Amino acid sequence: MYTYEYPHPAVATDIVIFTLRDQQLKLLLIKRRGKPFKGQWALPGGFVRLEESLETAAKRELEEETGVRDVYLEQLYTYGNLNRDPRERVITIAYFALIASDKIEVRADAEAVDWFTMDEIPDLAFDHQKIVKAAHQRLSAKLDYSTIAFQFMSEKFTLSELQNVYETILQAKVDKRNFRKWVLALERIEETGEIKSAESHRPAKFRP
Amino acid sequence: MYTYEYPHPAVATDIVIFTLRDQQLKLLLIKRRGKPFKGQWALPGGFVRLEESLETAAKRELEEETGVRDVYLEQLYTYGNLNRDPRERVITIAYFALIASDKIEVRADAEAVDWFTMDEIPDLAFDHQKIVKAAHQRLSAKLDYSTIAFQFMSEKFTLSELQNVYETILQAKVDKRNFRKWVLALERIEETGEIKSAESHRPAKFRP
DNA sequence: ACAAAAGTGTTGTATATACACCCATGA
DNA sequence: TCATGGGTGTATATACAACACTTTTGT
């Protein structure tokens, strides 16, 4: 038991984990085993331990669910409305994470874990629907003024693959020549010299 | 006394309150009366009560220090490093607020409260230096892609006054004609018909 | 030889920037 | 009448958007 002179809320982190699979933007949800909202889908997350920072807590949760370290992780927003959680007052610091899908180790205990596209998302526990929406907006906005989408790519990739990522997230076609002009102007990419074979047609170059 | 099965951190809000006075961007600091960092300057803030939301808590603090309601308030970031506070684990949700200086009622008990320009800021308690820096960066960034600076204006103002606000925050001269072109294109401003007298020269028009 | 994706420049359009003079008022 | 800030337009540069054909490879 832990006692305090004044009441303390509980503090948690929840993570919106995005990846790209099958040419679609997907996010990770877990089916709740525990008490409130049991059996319902929710964002991965959990309470912050006293001996870890907020970001450490988020990283721990992330690794527990996906087996991945060293991913792009960004604090999203903090939610603290009164009745978010029926048990007690819980404040959650929401993070969002982007992962290249080939880095993900699917966990063994992962029966109640699945990836959902944005329009497949079921009813979520707590206020997680709101959090997911905010994360998606942030991601969309950042595509325009940052190179955040690179986080979805693996070590080596072709420009066409990168363009596909943009088209998938933006849900729109992008002009190939303008796109390549823009990407190359960033000077964040260099050629590997390697050439992609397979898939029955002309091969490509490149990497970041 | 309040007891919990698991340890809970304390949760606070801190607010970076900006205003413009004497042609300078200033922020509000209070001199700590209480135990940790006693006598040192710090951001206004305090613990979140269980019966209020985070934003409500921030608004309450804001009103306590400035006597102002209905101001621009935006969640900035949440800080939760381990040793931010020597007393116990404290997580703080930082907000930033913008106020038109003529709306501020200086509080009677305000002896240990003062406004500081960005380069006058003394050593601050906790990690408040970091929070102030983040708030200032956010404010600067938002000038470019939003109309956030309007929050510093009172009901009626002239275009020259608004331009002064931009020049003050950006620390740079702005072209008068281009500025007016941009502002009027926003269509967020309308003329009042009123005309400003005093100050010994040609009078101006306008309002938002 | 053909299907499929890779690769490559130019032109027009919109947006942002630079710049100088006359006007109205209070003292 | 003069000092002071208010008010106004145009020309240029820069960034963004539209657009079509040739090349390479695997089957």
Structure description:
The structure is a homodimer of 208-residue chains. The first copy, chain A, is α+β, with helices and mostly antiparallel strands and 208 residues long. Chain A starts with a strand and ends in a 22-residue tail after the last helix. Helices cover 26% and strands 25% of the residues of chain A. In chain A, a hairpin with a 2-residue loop joins strand 2 and strand 3. Chain A has four helices and eight strands, in the order βββββαβββααα. In chain A, strands 2, 3, 4, 5, 6, 7 and 8 form a seven-stranded mixed β-sheet that branches. The longest helix of chain A is centred in the middle third of the chain and has 18 residues. Chains A and B meet through strand 1 and strand 6 of A and strand 1 and strand 6 of B. The structure holds a DNA duplex (27 and 27 nucleotides).
Offer a quick outline of the entry.
Chain A has 208 residues and is of the alpha+beta class. Helix content of chain A is 26%, strand content 25%.
Which SSEs are present, and which pair or pack?
Two copies of one chain form a homodimer.
Chain A: E1 2-4, E2 10-21, E3 24-31, E4 41-42, E5 45-47, H1 54-66, E6 72-79, E7 90-99, E8 113-117, H2 128-145, H3 159-170, H4 176-186
Chain A binds a DNA duplex (27 and 27 nucleotides) through residues 158-160, 175-178, 180-182, 197-205.
